[in-house]
User: Which sequence fits this backbone?
């Protein structure tokens, strides 16, 4: 959820699954293509990984922010963008949705902290694999192994700083949403804070 931009929220659950799944499928298929030079293997990765990752991501997003289904697509995008940038949402009726999305982001980021040990272990193994592939493997295997190591390092070094910056912005957006005056009577189903 922390890496899902506002434009992805424009779509419904099926569209979000397809977008996230296809992005992951193509990304990992590129690794397979580099390593094996096989278009058939790369296509198989896209076909298998796209639905698996897409469904998992869509379900996780839905659990993290259940209120998303109550909003129109443009409202979802406005909430996500304002929250991720740390800006006031600009529409008083969307202030409760900002709080709901921010809560989901905070929960997902806290859960992601647990996987750092897994990424560190994969990083150590990928270093050993990269050295081995460089000495004894093909050029494609070596390139794929070194790219995997770079991704692990980025995940361990760059992503925590990016997540911390995101959470600072989220806190600003929450403060602005709490300070937003209520929309008044008859403004619609998003009046007032939702029960948690």
Assistant:
């Amino acid at each position: 959820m922390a890496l899902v931009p506002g434009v992805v929220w424009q779509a419904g659950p099926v569209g979000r699954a397809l977008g996230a799944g296809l992005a992951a499928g193509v990304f990992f298929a590129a690794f397979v293509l580099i390593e094996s030079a096989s278009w058939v293997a790369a296509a198989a990765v896209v076909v298998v990984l796209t639905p698996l990752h897409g469904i998992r991501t869509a379900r996780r997003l839905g659990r993290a922010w259940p209120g998303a289904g109550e909003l129109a697509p443009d409202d979802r995008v406005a909430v996500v963008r304002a929250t991720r940038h740390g800006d006031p949402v600009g529409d008083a009726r969307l202030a409760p949705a900002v709080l709901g999305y921010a809560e989901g982001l905070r929960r997902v980021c806290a859960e992601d902290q647990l996987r750092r040990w897994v990424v560190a272990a994969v990083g150590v193994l990928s270093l050993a694999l990269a050295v081995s592939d460089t000495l004894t493997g093909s050029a494609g295997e070596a390139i794929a192994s070194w790219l995997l190591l770079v991704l692990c390092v980025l995940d361990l070094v760059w992503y925590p700083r990016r997540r911390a910056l995101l959470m600072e912005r989220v806190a600003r957006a929450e403060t602005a949403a709490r300070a937003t005056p209520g929309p008044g009577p008859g403004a619609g189903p998003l009046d007032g804070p939702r029960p948690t």
Summary: The chain has six helices and no strands. The radius of gyration is 20 Å.
